[in-house]
Amino acid sequence: MAHGDPGVFTATALPEDPRLLPTVTSAFLGTRVFRDILHAAGVYSGAAGDTHRADVPSPLGLRMAAPGARSPAESFTLNTWTGTFSHTIQSPGYTATHQLYAHHSLVHLMASSITIRRLDGSTHPITVQLRSLFVPQSQDLDLRPGPDFQGAHYIYGQTLVPEVEGGPRPTVHMLWTPIPQSLTLGGEERERRWEFLTAVAGSEEEAKRSYSAGLSLAAAGSLHRSHVRAWAALRRGCSVELDGPLALRQALHGCLYYLLSAVPPRDSPGVLFHGISPGGLSNGTRGEDYWGHVFWDQDTWMFPNILLLYPEAARAILQYRIRTLEGARRNAREQGYEGAKFPWESAATGREVCPEEIYGAQEIHVTGDVLMAFEQYYCTTQDQKLFREDGGWELVEAVAQYWCSRMMWSEEEQLYHIRGVMPPDEYHSQVDNSAYTNAMARRSLNFATDMARDLLLPVPEEWEDRARKIKVPFDEERKYHPEYDGYTPGEPVKQADVVLLGFPLMHPMSAEVRRNDLEMYEPVTDPAGPAMTWSMFAVGWLELKELQRAWSQLEKCFSNIMEPFKVWVENSDGSGAVNFLTGMGGFLQVILFGFTGFRITRSSLLFDPAFPDDITKLKVSSVSYLGNKLEVTITREEITMEVTETSQDSPASPLEAVLESGQRFPLWEG
């Protein structure tokens, strides 16, 4: 790999702030490099608002030191192509390399290897010390030792406090290779590698199976290679390449690395998926990254990218929401409404676990955000099985019922109102008719109606009636959407809110109104607000072909990307969530939906590219649409689309590319 490789991040020193160290994560396990704890997906401890990811002590938090060497040359590298972090010590006569990764296909396994290699003809032993903070105890788990297994130590235990009274307390089983205080390369040896494995699972059987599988791969010398192969296949399948400024390409590869680390591998239908929190699985201990809870960040900000590149993983995210439907029904009942109200913050059960009551009570747009992810999935895949057999329809229906019961008829305006909410802009609460919330409710009801028809089910009349008659505030004089009833222009806003009506909501409006919304809210949006905001302004300006304005919004994201490992922070002052996948999701949407102009509609995937000046080419290797895979290459001169795979069971009619001129080009495989 050449030094200029945009997918390899190397540094000679680590950032001062340990939160900015890179994460190594699979769908089930995550840690930050050199940290003494790891987390297992779905394992939370603590009641209600206190529930947080349970800290599991991590044997992987070890660090090499060269004894006696006067400050040897050190380097630290995150390689996004191999999904591996490494630390190298370069001494006069040898190199020592420590590699760390979360195995992509064996999701219950994390591995660490240390290699010492002699560089000269010397014959003296070479020793490297290992510093480890590991102590086999936890503030969140009642851990006890079990018998050793195949040379590994074993501990297991339950979380201390269930999320809801009488609820489940998951058990964690961990096996790990004991860590010596030092490693020595014998005088007669040229090179040697030591493997340290950690297996974590919900059952003793799974932990042992994963540990054994890791041992036999390690014995064959192919443990790391098997991980790299699985990870590289994922990166290939989700490949996005740009010709443009280096910083933009590095940001792109960083975002793909951290976001794809969070999704389930292709061949793991048996492993339950537990959703993606704003800072991912590596973060979320008590007091950090919103305790590892799942928000609309997953469904609105991360999901669309995953759907376009990897629909099977998108389906797993939706199944997490289906599994928490009962909790959502209880939330609605407790607030006096029908149907299901998804929590502002969700953990294992779907019950509201936000520590502050106001968000759970008022920031209700999240329920529509969840349903919109289902709608986009259905439009992109036409997968009726999710809705007919796997619980999707019950969720759609419950959300529609919730919105109907949450509205009130206004005699005066002859429209339905939704009162007393907090919009996405959290600087305002207890407002009536949030434009975003109400437009989202309308979209939920329209989708529920369409879905019922596709499934040949009766459609309740009130769904269509309320969708038609819900108020979405609009100022006829200024031709823009006020954020809520009584919003006065110029009033400060925390983050992207009304601009989301244009994208992702695609609420019907003229280009003039779209422009007015952008111009009205851009200057009053808090510059210290969360990172995903600027990407949605960028998408808006790209829609209007205002390329410079789009670029200047996108550039604001770079102050949230921390060197040297391209870890995002939520707010540019460094506060908020770290490894902020939400911001990365927004950034990727600018590339995958903004630059391409892709829009997912009921009948088609629209495209209408627009590039800022510095970008000359964009290639997305496999866009998934209706079971087909498309390779899309866009340059300033032309667009090429090639079907690289067709689905076995999709209808016989091939895809067609339709131009504005009305010309149609059928797309067959190849």
Automatic annotation (TrEMBL):
InterPro entries according to UniProt: 6-hairpin_glycosidase_sf, 6hp_glycosidase-like_sf, Glyco_hydro_65_C, Glyco_hydro_65_M
Identify the enzyme class.
hydrolase
Identify a single GO molecular function assigned to this protein.
Answer: protein-glucosylgalactosylhydroxylysine glucosidase activity
Query: Taking every annotated instance into account, which residue ranges of this chain make up the domain Glycoside hydrolase family 65 central catalytic?
Result: 282-488
- Hydrolase keyword on record: yes
Could you name the Gene Ontology cellular component terms for this entry? cytosol
An example of a Gene Ontology BP annotation on this entry? carbohydrate metabolic process
List, alphabetically, the SUPFAM superfamilies matched. Answer: Six-hairpin glycosidases
Described by its record, this protein's role is as follows:
Catalyzes the hydrolysis of glucose from the disaccharide unit linked to hydroxylysine residues of collagen and collagen-like proteins.
User: Family assignment?
Assistant: Belongs to the glycosyl hydrolase 65 family.
Protein name (Swiss-Prot/TrEMBL): Protein-glucosylgalactosylhydroxylysine glucosidase
Organism for this UniProt entry: Sylvia atricapilla
Lineage of the native species? Eukaryota, Metazoa, Chordata, Craniata, Vertebrata
Gene name as annotated: Pgghg
